[in-house]
Design goal:
46% of the residues are buried. By secondary structure, the chain is α/β, with parallel strands linked by helices. It has 2 domains: 143 residues, 3-Layer(aba) Sandwich (D-Maltodextrin-Binding Protein, domain 2); 97 residues, Periplasmic binding protein-like II (D-Maltodextrin-Binding Protein, domain 2, 3-Layer(aba) Sandwich). The strands form 3 sheets. A 5-stranded mixed beta sheet has the order 8-7-9-6-10. Strands 1-3-2-4 form a 4-stranded mixed beta sheet. Strands 5-11 form a two-stranded antiparallel ribbon. The chain starts with 5 loop residues before the first strand and ends in a 10-residue tail after the last helix. The longest helix is centred in the last third of the chain and has 17 residues. The chain is 31% helix and 23% strand. It is globular. Strand 2, helix 2 and strand 3 form a beta-alpha-beta unit. Pfam families: SBP_bac_3 (PF00497). This is Amino acid ABC transporter binding protein and permease protein. Keywords: Signal. InterPro entries: Solute-binding_3/MltF_N.
Length: 260
Amino acid sequence: MGQVLWICDRLGTRNVLERRTVTETTTRAPLRLACLDAEAPPLFSLWTPENGRTGYEPGVAEALGAELGRPVEWVRVPWVDMIPAVQRGDADAVLCGQGITPERQAQVDFTRPYAIFHEGVLIRRGTGIKSPEDLVGRKVAAIENSTNMKLAETFTGAIPVPFGAGSDDVYADMLAALLAEEVDAVVDDDVVFVPLGATHPDYELAFTVKTANKWGIAVSKDRPDTLAEIDGALERLISSGRLRDVWKEWLPTLDYPFGE
């Protein structure tokens, strides 16, 4: 049957996000969303029985579920299995760090963006790396086949190190490798690395690159009705200001990218 999937339910119940009651929400089929189960605040948290998942992306999911009148069901899989999960029909969509790239668009269809982020380079505190030129001869980790890896490959003289294959928590694996001095830097999105670098005793942000990567919700190419349903709901969240409310709750230090 393939890989076992861990599934959990979470209803969107915040008043600012709700347009329907919980009773109404439970009358329709769940919205099954594939995600990585990892700790990457303020983007998302590890799932717990008490709180489910929290963060910006779970907040977007809750708002979508409320708009569609559908409870959200998280299908937690390794990073490399998220797109295959929707292609197999194990999930309706991926809502987890999917930059809209030509490579991914060849595999799945995307909604309009729900976020636009730049990228950051995280290092061990005190390393002294301040620019791409300082990465010559150094190992730079990033998730394989990601926009972050594409950026790492542009650093002249750096040695890109892909992470992801066979990992249940690729984000934690990269940070552990950085701390263990197996790599010298990690490339990921500013939404995660700016706060981590400012508060963690072992890591600091070396620099950011303004790549303005658009993130969308990925849906199997053989489910155009599902794509239209989710994209329409997202458009309504943007036009009504409800997406802006979620952004300001979880990402108050970042500029909202879709106007006021």
